[in-house]
């Protein structure tokens, strides 16, 4: 028997998880969001009930997936602690929040964290993303692992400590990388060069690391020690003092990392 | 009549350009590299003559493409100045070197710069990459543009100043981005978390900007102002003081860029 699932939170992650679990044949028991229209829009897509008050969340599901903002998880756990009367499983989807946030509220709790950047509009390829699972006990971990495996082939057993490492490094490879794209776009726009010219290079940068380690794939003036080019770039970046600092720091860091080769 | 072309330099760019031009039906007249075996290996693939002394480069080609290291271009220009007797076209493939490096040596000179990261082993998709062209006069620019268009659909007329902008921003979106991948890999390795878990996120990061501007695509604790998560990350990065500095600086930069929204 498939467990029935209630989804707490109708943001990017809650949205895509709900659709995927429904599509996979799970019964979505309730969809909760503080914003009723959001809960209703999502609930309608999976033929279930929407609610926007925590008191409306009932005890009839088997698994409760909390997919809300990080800073709301602790207080949500407190409000959901009545679920422990029936030994329900409560799991959250946050990369940033320790599993221990549930300590003292539940007996069976865990992590159900799909490591990917989600947008409401864009379909998610569950074949591609990694699922990080943890659980307060063997049975809970097994149940959450099975649930993840039924919608995704790449399921990992990841401790709080490992998840923290993944979250810090995810910020680096996603948020910071994207910011560098934004900086490049701003400069191109202000200098009247079409940013699109850089698109193929950006695609190739990530294409490369499918086959080569990023350390081995490193190119550019910093690793070549091409001081003349670095100076010309820094000179240009006089107009952008903050980006000049970033340029210096990252060039130095490239040289430091490869000094130890 | 297709012009005949001599290639000066058998590195990554020279290698791929030679093969592509040959495949497109151009006669490759000579291949030069200081390292004779390298010149020979490439020349053999396109049924032509290899040489490793500048004096062996003859006057029989129509266009000379200089694809050598940036800091060798000025001296190569001097040594090739005899080509100007026949008004030959000489172009270099560097993103970092101004066209003016050829001033005083030739009358017909220009830029033939494919903006992409090349590896000898990996085939280059000329359908995807942008070609940046410039020329010392209308006729030269037209000839180089035609040559580029015959092997690539995306040809841009780019001035020295614009090429400098593209080169700085290319360093940001390629070299720096790749370095962040390398940093993440190092941390994952040392913390015994498989770096491969981050691969799908990395791919999605660049996939996203095909449809969304990077500024609009920004996510993460910095843009959310999630100070608690930032603090936990910085705390973890105490073990990596240099990466902690990068984390702080880029988080600040994200917040600065979006403050002005």
Q: Would you tell me which CATH topology of the largest domain in chain A applies?
A: Rossmann fold
Overall tally of domains of chain A: 2
* Assigned CATH architecture of the largest domain in chain A: 3-Layer(aba) Sandwich
Mind telling me the C-alpha Rg of chain A? 23 Å
Enumerate how many helices of chain A there are, as a single number: 10
How far is it from the N-terminal to the C-terminal residue of chain A, by CA?
Answer: 54 Å
Give the largest chain-chain interface (CB within 8 Å).
A-B, 90 and 90 residues
Largest sheet of chain A: 8 strands, mixed
* Widest β-sheet, arrangement of strands of chain A: 3-2-1-4-5-6-7-8
Give your account of this protein's structure:
The structure is a homodimer of 261-residue chains. The first copy, chain A, has 261 residues and is an alpha/beta fold. The first copy, chain A, folds into two domains: 5-158, NAD(P)-binding Rossmann-like Domain (Rossmann fold), CATH 3.40.50.720; 164-259, ProC-like, C-terminal domain (N-(1-d-carboxylethyl)-l-norvaline Dehydrogenase, domain 2, Orthogonal Bundle). The first copy, chain A, is 46% helix and 14% strand. Chain A is built from ten helices and eight strands. The first copy, chain A, has helices spanning 12-23, 36-45, 73-79, 138-149, 160-190, 199-208, 214-217, 221-224, 227-236, 241-259; strands at residues 5-8, 28-32, 49-51, 63-66, 89-92, 108-114, 130-135, 154-157. In chain A, strands 3-2-1-4-5-6-7-8 form an eight-stranded mixed sheet, covered by helices on one side. In chain A, strand 4, helix 3 (73-79) and strand 5 form a beta-alpha-beta unit. Chain A is elongated and about 70 Å long. The termini of chain A are far apart. Chains A and B meet through helix 5, helix 6, helix 7, helix 8 and helix 9 of A and helix 5, helix 6, helix 7, helix 8 and helix 9 of B.
């Amino acid at each position: 028997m498939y467990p029935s699932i209630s989804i707490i939170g109708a943001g990017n992650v809650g949205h895509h998880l709900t659709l995927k679990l429904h599509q996979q044949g799970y019964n979505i028991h309730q969809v909760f969001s503080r914003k009723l229209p959001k809960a209703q829009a999502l609930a309608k897509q999976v033929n279930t009930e929407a609610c926007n008050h925590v008191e409306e969340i009932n005890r009839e599901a088997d698994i409760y997936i909390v997919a809300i903002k990080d800073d709301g998880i602790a207080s949500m756990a407190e409000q959901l602690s009545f679920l422990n009367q029936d030994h329900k499983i409560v799991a959250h989807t946050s990369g940033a929040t320790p599993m221990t946030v549930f300590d003292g509220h539940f007996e069976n709790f865990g992590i159900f964290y799909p490591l990917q950047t989600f947008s409401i509009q864009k379909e998610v390829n569950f074949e591609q993303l990694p699922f990080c699972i943890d659980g307060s006990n063997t049975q809970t971990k097994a149940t959450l692992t099975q649930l993840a495996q039924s919608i995704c082939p790449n399921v990992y057993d990841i401790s709080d400590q490992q998840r923290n490492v993944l979250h810090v490094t995810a910020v680096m490879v996603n948020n910071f990388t994207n910011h560098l794209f934004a900086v490049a776009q701003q400069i191109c726009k202000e200098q009247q060069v079409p940013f699109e010219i850089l698109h193929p290079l950006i695609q190739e940068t990530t294409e490369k690391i499918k086959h080569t380690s990023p350390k081995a794939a490193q190119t550019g003036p910093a690793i070549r020690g091409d001081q003349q080019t670095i100076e010309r770039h820094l000179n240009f970046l006089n107009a952008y003092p903050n980006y000049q600092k970033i340029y210096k720091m990252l060039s130095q860091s490239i040289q430091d990392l490869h000094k130890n080769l």
